[in-house]
Structures are given as structure tokens and as C-alpha cells.
Amino acid sequence: MFNKILIANRGEIALRIVRACKEMGIETVVVHSTADANGMAVRMADESVCIGPPPARQSYLNIPAILTAASLTNADAIHPGIGFLSENEEFCRMVEEHGFTFIGPTPEHIAKMGDKAVAKETMRALGLPLIPGSPGVVKDADEGLKIAKDCGFPVLIKAVAGGGGKGMKVSHNEEDFKASFSMASNEAKAAFGNGDVYIEKYLSHPRHIEVQVIGDTHGNAVYLGERDCSVQRRHQKVIEEGPSPILTPEQRKYIGELAAGCIRKMRYRGVGTMEFLFEDGKFYFLEMNTRLQVEHSITEMITGVDLVREQIMVAAGQKLPFKQENVKFMGHAIECRINAEHPETFIPSPGKITRYHAPGGLGVRVDSALYDGYTVPSTYDSLVAKLIVHAKTREEAMMRMERALEECVIEGIQTNIPLHLRILQEPEFRAGQFNIHWLEKMLGGKQDENKKVAS
Asked: Which residues, listed in sequence order, are joined to residue 376 by a DSSP beta bridge?
């Protein structure tokens, strides 16, 4: 087992990893930018190293600085957390070349799953169902138009190296296709340095279902249930829950065994998430995230499995301590992502926390690095807390979440708590009748208005 782990991340996920390490008797080093010098993870870690100024490229994406910090502190392993370098093949390779253990999958698996077109072809070969579309990268708009006609409009044009909704455009007909193709490619080039795109059939009312998987270096793999992440705004998840309120036990077992079987065949190491779209009783593979997910907390609540602990154990070469038949699913969990933003315009709201009170009580969990007097920086993602509740049934979980949201106090900045309360009161959400387009339809025309306000 490792003696010391360097955590190359910030905020609530860095604190989450610090806590897991403390419970395992492992010392921690947290690297940070100057903007995060007073972060809770920095305070809680055994050691901390400042690696640069606030811009991520000069700190959290600064590979030489991170590796130097690991060497200076005699770390055994590096945990990349979520985002930043967590799915960076080059970083993973360099970590291991410098004699450290990367707490995650191999560079080869990161590379394969990081290229969306390659990932789809890999999963097709392993037996996963795919959305109809191009077999790989589309070389130009003319080729793309032929594929779009074969699929039937509307189609989705997506960046190969994409994520977070960037480099993604919907084309509804032949007339707008070439313009949408050009916009998607240009946006992808600007965001990821890679303008390659592929095409798939646009599904009109799908659910976003993801399956949590974990594999070890001994050929063992299990699935830990699914999460329903269909409540989204601009392809960003807002509320997640598990299990999905619409899947039958048979569907749940089918997609779980299929996902676990794939990573077993791949000899995949570590935690991962297989993402699917689900429409009219059919699953379609979307992508695989080769890291811990923001919403991993839901899975922990309904299974009792500490995913960060198991991630570390697997990276150290140990066998999974349980088999599929040992995994038991208990009750229902819901997670609300609390963002520092205006609840209606969605404009970011950084600033100093003047008052903070976390909700509590039976079945309530808060993953956050907030505290009274902490200043939320404007440099990074607006997520400041994850509020998770667990109960015997979905109805009880919704009631518990509503109570917890009302109990939560975050002053000094604006948050999206009012939006979460509004969603929870919507009849369609309470009935479990929603899809990935539902939230934006619920918000109505405010999306375009907010763009004008933000600009």
C-alpha cells in the first residue's frame, strides 16, 4: 500500500480524497494554485505545495510542476481527482515514467476512451449497442451530409475530443447542416485543439443513464448500479439519482452486466463510468469516463462501497474485495449540484462566503470545501457543493432533499438552490417523467435571454 499520495486537484474532490486517505492511514500532499492557498483540502492535508498562479494552465494543468512537487515530497502515487488532468494520457504516462503510480487506468485505456470515435468502435467490437451514425471521424461537410441523410434528420454533430457540450451542434435539415458542421468543428478546435467531429442520430427524448464499473489488475470487474443523469442544462448535469426511476430490474441487470463484461474484456484498471442514452426501451453507448465522477457519491450511498478507497486499493495492485453477487443495492439517492451562480441567469457568482451552514440529519451528506470566510474564486468551475440524500424510497428521498435544501445556508454569493427547489416541485420530476431536454424546456426561453445578459 502507498505511504503518501499527492492529490493533483482542488475543491471538494481534493478534500474527498484527503478524507479517504486519512481513513486508510495514508499521508497526503495537496498541490494548489495561489487562489486556493486557503482551501479546505490544503488545510486538511499533511503537506501542501503551491504550483502556480490561478490560471489552470499555469497550475493544475502544469505537469512539470506537479511531478516536481511529487518528487520533492517523496510521494508514491498521484491521484488526479476529477477534471483537469484526470483523463490526460500524457500526464498518466509521465507519472508512471517518473516512478509514481497513477491512481486511475492505463495511458492506453485513457487514450482509447478519450477519443470518442475510437471509443465507439471499441465498444461496438465488444458488443455494446451504438447510436446510428458515422463509423468514425467525418473528413468534411460533404461526407457528413451523406451520412446525415442515411441516418435521417435531425442529427448531432459532435467533437471527437469533446466534453461538457462543447463542439456539439444539432442539425435539423440539409439546409443548416454545413453551417452546423462548421460551427461544431471550429468550436471543437478552439476548445480542445482538435476540430475532428463525428455524426450520430439525434434522439428526441432519451434518458441519460450511466453505469458505475470498477476493475482490478487481476481480471475482476463488477458494476455498482446505474445513475440517472437526465436533468441537464446545456449538457451539464444538474441533478442525478440512483437507481433510475424508469428502469426495470431486468433492464438494470442487462446493462450492468454488459458494461462490466466490457471492462473485463478490456482488462480495465480502476473506476470508470459507461454512459448511455436510453430511449424506447433501448440502450445506446455514448462514452466512457475513465475517472471518478462528480456524482460517484450517489453510488456510494446506495451500495455502501467507498469508491475512492477501492480506486486506491486497485491502483496498489490489490484484488477487489467483493464479487458481483456481494453488491447489494439499498434504497434511493439523489444529488443536487450546488453552483455559485444566479439561479435564473446562471451568471457565475464568485465571492466571499459570509455565512455557511450545511444541512444535516439522517441520510444527508454534503461534499463541499466551503467554510465561513472562504472566497470562491472566479477562475474555476462554479460547483461549490454536492448535496446528497439517501432514503428507502424515491418519494422519501425527494422529501428529504427538499428539507435539506431549505436548511442549507450559503450567504455572500448566489447559488442555484432556488432552481433545485423548483425542480423538486415540478410534477414531471416527481413522477420521474423527464429526459435530457426536459429542464431546458421547463426553463423556457430564459436560455437565450441569459446569453444576452451574460454578454
From this structure: 351
